[in-house]
## 1
Amino acid sequence: MEILKELETIAKQNVNTTLESARSNGKKIMGYFCSYVPEEVIHAAGFIPYRMRAVESPGTSLGDTYFAPSICSFVRHCFSKALNGDFDFLDGVIFMNGCDHNRRMHDNWRYAKIKPEFLYMLPVPHVVSDASTQKYMNEIKKLARAMETEFDVTITARALEDAIILYNKKRDLLTRIYENRKKKEVPIKGSEFLSIMLAITALPIDIAIEKLELVLKGLEGRVVSSDDDLRLFMAAVCTEEIEHMELIENSGGIVVADKICLGRSHFHTLVELKDDPIRAIAKRYLTHLSCPRMMDDMRRRMAYMHDEIKEYNVDAIIVEKLEFCTLMAGETFLYKNEAGKIDFPILSLDRELFGGGTGQIKTRVQAFFEQVRNIKEMSQN
Amino acid sequence: MEAVSYDYLDNVVNIWRFGRKLTKHPYLAYFNIKYFAPPMIKLNFFNRAELKFAFESIGQGQLSPQELKAMYYCLDALVESVGGVLAAARNNEPVVWFDYTVPSIILNAFGVASICTSMVSKTPNYLGADCLIEHFEAAENAGVSSEICSMTRLPLGAVLMNQMPKPVALLTTAQPCDSGRTVSQMLDYLADAPSFVIDSIYDKDEESIGHYSADIMAMIEFLEKILDRKLDWDKLKTHVEELNLFNYYLREVSQMHRAIPSPGLGFIFLESSWPLRLFASGYPSATKFGKTIYDIGKQRITKDLHKRKKEEKIRVMISGAPMYFMDIYLWMQKEFHAYVVADYLVQTANPEIDTSTRESMIRGLAIDNLHLGMLRQSHGPVEFIIEDIENLIDEYSPDCLIFCGNIHCKHKKSVPKIINDTCKKTGVPTLNMSLDLFDPRANSEDTIKKQIKDFFINNGLV
């Protein structure tokens, strides 16, 4: 499918031509980290939201002077890119307290005095409650004020409502594409879905919607799975390497469901626009399919895994952790225990982002798949 | 009914009880320890690790009778607190788990037995290195990643070995770090009891303090429901007044260490005030401990000045000492006349809590809580870390800095350049170690001693 190839090209680039031309036409671009930063607010301020990424990283050597080697490779890659000037096309970056590694990037970025000048920390609550929603609303308002002051723009309620409609449309399209994977004959691979996610988070929303509509249309009658493929549920945080997912899928599996930052977590739950748009945004971002950073939502995340296994007819789970990611280390423990309760096959992988080691990963995945197939065969007999 | 065994905690409480008995008559204890110490060391404590650690925890014969008196109060508070929890658990009374970041004084006012899960990052030390390793291995064998900070992994080990009384509720906060957030969820999963999380705050402004206080109030409501009883606000006020006194003495003792020479209370003050704050907040014995070391300190910086001048050759500022090397302070004192005058993590600067209204009390507890080591520096931007380091150097005039640097602490490992640059700017020689502060498998006492010795020699301090 042509559109998927186009999106894959965009996914593998740090800056794409659409962004470049938008920028040369005077459009401003705002980088942001993590799925807890509200894209709607950035859009309503007149910016193109750009999800920060490690793709096309020159390596971590520059970042390693600011971070110890025991810090996550995603952060070290991104910071190396910043030091290398790869994010100079941005007008600002919004950080959040997703994890300790990521939030300290805000400190190092300020300390290193590198571009862009507008660097903002958005503290997001770690629990869901009425009080935390109110706190988050206040933080969103502060962010909006900071952008208004810095860039001499006005964020109106109307602009926020329009943004909510647009971003909900994107979420709806992504959900429909994602749910196509429930089919016995799967029309889209996990690696292709990852390409879509990487691409649309680096495109203006109207263009992203156009592309998603084309993808959805193209899925009609398409089949990419074979009967032998194992249906996989994949859980991870920062995953950006399309080749890595291809490696897994080329070993005899197909990712049909996920719990990845640049996956289901990004578009799960719509913004319910009933009253105040900021309240609606705060509610959605706090209650969407949560990251392990959210402390009172662990049981819902585990229930989600069980539901996905049933709904997507999953054969096995792969849970991936970037080295030194404490949050995912805990989550892996929970996933393993939950899978153990129902005697469900699970493989946990530890790796560095863009860190190579493909031979080793391939061997482990192949061995795991063989094990799962044997179990399946035995239970069928 | 089947008897419940909490072997490790029982043994630790028994050691504390023994220490309390021994130090009840401090002068007698002083001479006994002096007399028995050399043969005990020679006999390697009959190869009994708990005897060795018990001996170390009461100062290896290096503490004065007055300091042993303070130690008596410290042990009394610890026995009362942890021993009380074990007794309650055996009587089938409810037990609440709380993380060290939760203002536990509220639980005391509820009259419910409560145990600090972070306590297990310290207690296995009293039973020797093998016990610590057993805790780590229990966690690792169950699939807990060793990338999680070892301080927070130890309670998981204890829970997995069924060494913790079952809780009716868990209380925690969403700070200061990923390890804390992660392990709290894992404990919640394993305990399968209702839990409450006090949200994190990034800033220190009024709005943030308000949010934090509101969450503490919500925690009280949660406890009232779970325990089916109302909080006794008068009792809370009494406990907070006790805590105010405790804080006052500790603040004063902290300040006394600015003096040159310092009163040299590093070991007893810094090592004991931390567990007291965590496990026995608001206990009268904890206050008596504070008062006793306050009196010692006052005497030393006024009357014993000449003696202290001879004694103190190097002033050390430390950040986090390895738990399994409990006598690091005493060893530095004995070998190099090097005295720890400030500890980046344990320093007490907690302000007085206003007890005039319920709201002011809760607000005060929130602020008090945010002054806890690790929380104080790590809940916000790097400036909180830097200001702390710069202020301590400015106020306590150390001759050198020793950063033990817990290898799993993502906060410090995320800003090593900023910290190093700050230290360089001050011109104070700095030793940056990369230790695991809780896991003795990663570093030996000998390695640590060698690094410190070389550092002192290389910088002309000895």
Note: The first strand of chain B starts at residue 95 and ends at 98.
## 2
Amino acid sequence: MNYEQKLLELIKKNERIIILTAENRAAMRNLPALIGDRFIDVGIAEQTMVGMAAGLALRGRIPIVHALATFLTMRAFEFIRTDVGIGKLPVKLVGAVPGFLSEANGPTHQAIEDISIMRGIPGMNIFCPSDEVDLLIGLEEVIENPDPFYIRYNNMQSSVEHETKFEIGKAEVVFEGRDVVILTYGILLKQAVEATEILKLEGKSVGVINLRTLKPIDKELLIKTCKNSFLVVTLEDHFITGGLYSILSEILVEEQIICKVLPIGLNNKWFKPTLLSDVFEYEGFTGEAISEKINIELDKANYQTVQYLF
Amino acid sequence: MNKKSNPELEKIAYKVREHIIRMSTDGGCFTGASLSCTDLIVYFYSNFLNVDKNNLKDPNRDYLFLSKGHDVPALYGTFAELGIVERERLRNHLKTNDYIYWHPNTNIPGIEYHSGSLGHLLSVSMGVAMDCKLKMQSNKIVVILGDGELNEGSIWEGLLIASALKLNNLIAVVDRNEFQANIRTEELIPIEPLTNKFVAFGWQTYKCNGHDFSDLEKTFESLPSQPEKPQVVIASTIRGKGLPSIEARADRWFCNFTHDEVEQLLQELYSKEKTDLKSETLIVR
């Protein structure tokens, strides 16, 4: 099953659901013909789409709106904040090609601050599936939830066998580990797993957590992880400011936890516009590059693997 | 609906203007902008819209969205006179014990949605209009736009799309008082010829005098019940209408009068003799 098929299933089940797009039909080419007037394409007009979604929600609908993540979250930001956010309406905002997925489009299309700006809206929730399977596992609960949601969409193939139980605000523990734990969301779960495989061969105990929802976030698990790990890594295709690293930092300050954290993200810069595999290479986000960064951090901290072997 | 006669409407409009004047002190409000759309709002809620205190949540009611927002004292006053909000409640204007502030919000019965940031409620009203159409309802969706608000790009985006989506149950009304904030529209960002612009965007366009109840009745009653296109009525109005001492003045948009001036203005409302206003003019933007 893919996103479009899952949407169709939900639309048939729930008459409140209505689909909007700002001429972004990539994820649902077949849907218009199948759902008739429950599909509304407003053209290239993100602000009007979000305003209309608010109006439809006032009438009891659950609008699911689609646009490229940059234009949805930034061009229409004030409409999201003011028309969806203040009224806390159940509008579901689906942002396409977020993070590295804009590939060679260039900085105009790089949604690498989307988490940061969406999480600042009171009542807004954020779902960042790692791949299509993960997306479909959480989609129904996210859509049926009475609050607004930003969905950082992707339809990549899975690199892991996912936990099929989904709960908003609960992360998925992909691997348990004691020395290093990589916290991540979205497409970089694959690279996190690759880095883990390399580090494991070197004798390290490495965990991976797929956050799934960044707001609300699995605070309990993050606190436990930070207290029990030598090094915590935040891995994200997002600016280091405002995303997962910031969320974690706020929790650590609030809980007065001292913990070694390595942020891997985009540090105050746009990424090189090129094809996806070359983005990973160029920007140092391959499994190998990530494992090297982690090893450098471990060396700096005089970390010795053997300390856990006894 | 029991339609009110013109003298009855005029009496209500006087009362609403009294409320607006009384809200123009102890912090003040957007007096000039509120007075320009007072007659429009009184007419809509008295004789045009199927909205009363008993059907505010009925999905078959008509809807009115106040997109220009800062003229909300006209709405508070009208609701007070028509029994949708208790009159005494208007004394809570700007107080922490209530929600009667400078822009509309849904804590006040009858207010369909909040506004204040210009250029928002056209698209929100389009969403409501779309849902009503999908449900085959015959109710009307009215959205009041300021002429200064027409500077916003989202308005023109919305006009284009409402036409494309054939939202023929949508009626936009432009409160054409010829001012934006502190400057005349034609001196800052000229919007004329306005009718031609709406026609070019695919809207059925009408004009009327926004202070003449006979003309309002004639214009709105003659709107076709099954139009092909969304409709817009450009209502000519006067900022500060009813108070000669502030009418059509660029510097009397937001007013915070002294208590004495309020008393004098309440007299001026009926006598039309100009008050000698001493309170400073406020340039808000």
Note: The beta strands of chain B are 63-66, 141-146, 170-176, 179-180, 183-184, 204-209, 231-236.
